[in-house]
Amino acid sequence: MKFHSFTELGNLEFPNQMERKYQKIKSLVTENIQSQERGLDMARVRGFFENYTLKVPEIVVTDYQGLSQMKKIFEENNYMVGFDSYLNNIGTYLPEIEIVVVNRHHKLSSNILTLEEVNGSIAVEGFIVHEVAHGTASLCGFCPGPETPHISRTGFWERGNQNEDIGAFWEEGFAEYMRVKFLESSETHIPQGMMISPDDEIRLPLKFSVMNELKEPQVFDSSIAGYALECLCNMEPLLLAKLIASRKSESNRDDCINFIESRWEGLYSSLKSVNPTYNGFKDALQKILILVKNEK
Ligand SMILES: [Zn+2]
Questions:
Q1: Cα-to-centroid distance, 222 and ligand 1 (Å)
Q2: pLDDT tens by residue, 99-150
């Protein structure tokens, strides 16, 4: 659920030798780490994206042991140095090797029960959908580095000149909105109603949350962006199709951004530099809720 932290910026060339390097790493991951999908409805996950004619990248559902194996492969091949910081995430999308990784055994705060044990397999499927949504972007910019060129742009997210995250609000919002749309399309009961943030400042629909062991709703920062995107899609019925199309080509992406800019004057640009943190996403949501109020 977090974005990669990259340090270099350059042109969009991806040298052949590097393509081979990433292909090798990808093969090492898929050959050595068996995806643990038993009991998960992967056909429904794939079908969800196929209905939108979006591509689904390779998916590796794993556990803490699989993540350590992956870390070793990455270290040996000089890729994702600092993968440690991802070991605590439920999932991540690795754009260079086009693999979605989800930790099926992700532990909740108590370190006893897993996300799946408390919330069921549908919750794991939902987080796979979130990461796959990032991976549907067919557009990637590559930063060349002396050893490790890497992605400088994927979907709405870009690495800025000052090494800052650009567009994270839009990219995270899209992935989270897709997760919740997937949950809503299932036959599982999705909690209705609203919840209030611990700082008492924002209200979010419960459907964006997962439960902890005490059956208290927990949300991720990205969920705030997801709710904001849902509000915009509810206000403007044409937006969802534009967002979906934006994953498929550069001109569609530009078209989607222009559509948002003209529908709500300057909104895309004003929120693209929002920091991918609780406070950043909260401020962005509050701006969007004002738009919702004014259009009523
Ligand atoms: Zn994400």
A1: 7
A2: 999 999 998 776 789 999 999 999 999 999 999 999 999 766 666 555 555 6
- Across the range 246-273, mean pLDDT stands at 94
* Predicted structure pTM score: 0.91
The answer on pLDDT for 83 being more than 70 is yes
Q: Residue 63's pLDDT is what?
A: 93
What does each C-alpha distance from 94 to 69, 135, 229, 273 come to in angstroms? 15, 8, 23, 22
Residue carrying structure tokens 């932290």: 5
Ligand 1 center–CA 132 separation, angstroms: 9
| Residue 10 CA, ligand 1 centroid: distance in Å | 24
Span from the CA of 292 to the centroid of ligand 1 (angstroms):
25
Cα separation, 269 vs 38, in Å, equals: 43
Q: What pLDDT score does 12 carry? A: 43
Residue 7 pLDDT: 32
